[in-house]
Specification:
By secondary structure, the protein is of the alpha/beta class. The chain has a single domain, classed as Rossmann fold, CATH 3.40.50. It has 8 helices and 5 strands, in the order βαβαβααβαβααα. β2, α2 and β3 form a beta-alpha-beta unit.
């Protein structure tokens, strides 16, 4: 019997590659969460485009825009500017959304219990976390234990992080190997029309493509960043 899995698909490159890995086992269910982020509409479009590409029948989009009201992050609070990226900084950046992944996983595990799914895939990457505490495997291990305690006996839901230790360049290569639709993805923190090329997320993505020796298929407003991120 094919194992039922759920994939959290933000619309970004990492979640797209995680979805491509999950799709090798059958047809997963796709979950997207709008949390009041600046690029909410563009990310939702990317989610649906990726879901259409994989002909996903079971897809769910959930709104938790109360995270915008809570604020505390440049992604959800318009009074906090998304800064120009600076890769390699040790401190937690202002783009960290407090405890966001816990909210996403709670929804995914609730749905998994209803669908009878035994795995939840999330495209978290420790390199990409930029110090985000909820992007560490230790966090996912702890949440998986909590899920085991808080769901029906026998649910056995595990959290799968297939990209957690990978570099961005390796994720690009894996996506290309699996035929993932990277051109449909969206990573920019600032804008929904054209990627800014300046935020941390854009810089990490650009560096990944540069190190992989492949041209990024999406358009950037500031193209000079492509040259700056080459090794």
């Amino acid at each position: 019997m094919t194992q039922k899995v759920i994939v959290l698909v933000s619309g970004g490159m990492d979640s797209c590659v995680a979805a491509a890995i999950a799709a090798q086992k059958g047809q997963p269910a796709f979950l997207h969460v709008n949390y009041g982020q600046r690029t909410e509409d563009r990310e939702l479009k990317a989610f649906n485009d990726i879901a259409d590409f994989y002909a996903i029948k079971e897809r769910l989009s959930v709104d938790i825009s109360h995270l915008r009201a809570i604020g505390g992050s440049a992604l959800t609070d318009r009074n906090i500017e998304v800064p120009r990226g600076e890769l390699g900084k040790a401190e937690i950046p202002v783009t960290y959304v407090p405890f966001r992944n816990a909210h996403l996983l709670a929804i995914a595990i609730s749905w998994a219990e209803v669908l009878g799914a035994t795995q939840v895939y999330i495209g978290a990457v420790e390199e990409d976390g930029s110090g985000y505490p909820d992007c560490r495997r230790e966090f996912f291990d702890a949440f998986e234990k909590a899920a085991g305690l808080g769901t029906k006996p026998g649910s056995g839901i595990s959290i799968v992080t297939p990209l957690i230790k990978m570099r961005k360049s390796d994720i690009v290569k894996k996506g290309l190997e699996l035929g993932a639709p990277l051109s449909l993805t969206w990573s920019c923190y600032r804008d929904g029309d054209e990627a800014c090329g300046e935020c941390d997320s854009c810089l990490l993505r650009l560096r990944g493509f540069a190190e992989a020796g492949v041209e990024d298929p999406i358009t950037y407003r500031i193209t000079s960043k492509k040259q700056e991120t080459r090794p």
